[in-house]
Amino acid sequence: MSDVILLDGGMGQELIARASEPPHPFWSARVMLREPDVVRAVHRAYVEAGARVITVNTYAVTRTRVANHGEGADFAALHVAACRLADEARLGRRDVALAGCLPPLVASYKPDLALPFERARTEYAEIVDVEGPYVDLFLAETIPSVAEGRAAAEAACPSGKPVWIGFTVMDDGSARLRSGEPLADAVKALSDLPVAGILINCSTPESCDAALPALLGQRAIAGVYANGFVSIDALDAGGTVDVLKARKDLGPEAYADYALGWVDAGARIVGGCCEVGPAHIAALAQRLEAEGHRLIAPGTVEPVR
Q1: Which class for 198: exposed (0-12), middle (13-18), buried (19 or more C-beta within 10 A)?
Q2: Each residue of 178-217: pLDDT tens digit?
Q3: For residue 13, how far is the Cα from the chain centroid?
Q4: In this predicted structure, which of 5-9, 251-255, 296-300 has the lowest mean pLDDT?
Q5: Which of 17, 19, 144, 162 could be disulfide-bonded to 111 (CB atoms 3.0-4.6 Å)?
Q6: In which order are the strands placed within the sheet that holds 294-295?
Q7: What rounded mean pLDDT belongs to the chain?
Q8: Cβ-based neighbours of 112, under 8 Å, separated by 6 or more
Q9: 257 has pLDDT over 80
Q10: How is 12-52 classified by DSSP, letter by letter?
Q11: Mapping DSSP to helix (H, G, I), strand (E, B) and coil, where does residue 10 land?
């Protein structure tokens, strides 16, 4: 059996379910400003479910989103607040790591809107500098193109902390990024950097099945955490995820079936993205342990070659 790092699940949908306000383009960060106890409670629910990594709630806190929707919020203060809330939620447990969040800088799933490379690297480096004192590793997630993944990696690797890059792939089983580039090209583009993990995230489980082989046999650890959306096509830039529909066939046990398949294939990092909640992570933790896998914190897992 294998050592496995279990991530948390999605934050946005959990906040929609628990917070008192309707969704907003600055959604997760706005809830953090107005109802921080709700954000802390979601983090804690994932820790109690068995997650060994929780990602700080800064997916919406980029310079572009703060400028367009932040209503005067302080960029650095929001990042620090998110890190502190996540730290409080792990209740002093040192076997639960905090992942700093490096999201798409303008909009999810929209590589055509991405910033120029040098500007992207600079903005990622700013996030790394602010979150660095508080987190154990950096996770770039839902990255839709080779260039944005490279920019995030170049910004984060000098921190000296483990860096994981998570790419989102098309939902057609082609193992191509949302940009149309092969996932294999993204893996190659990171090969000269000390990236510790390369993952697939915020894509359908079926598309993750098809894309995972491109990550295996590499120096970096392979990981997968899928979403539970029917489709992401309805989401416009600056829109809110409440326009997307959740699948009805992806309950906790069904999701765990997919995740156990990824582990059997060679993934050593698994978890959940949008529409995958604490109940899914709890079921996955139980199934992993029942099958003899050991849930561990980052830093001691070797890639499958």
Answers
A1: buried
A2: 999 999 999 999 999 999 999 999 999 999 999 999 999 9
A3: 14
A4: 296-300
A5: 144
A6: 53-55, 97-102, 137-143, 163-167, 197-201, 221-226, 269-272, 3-6, 294-295
A7: 92
A8: none
A9: yes
A10: HHHHHHH-SSPP-TTHHHHHHHH-HHHHHHHHHHHHHHT-S
A11: coil
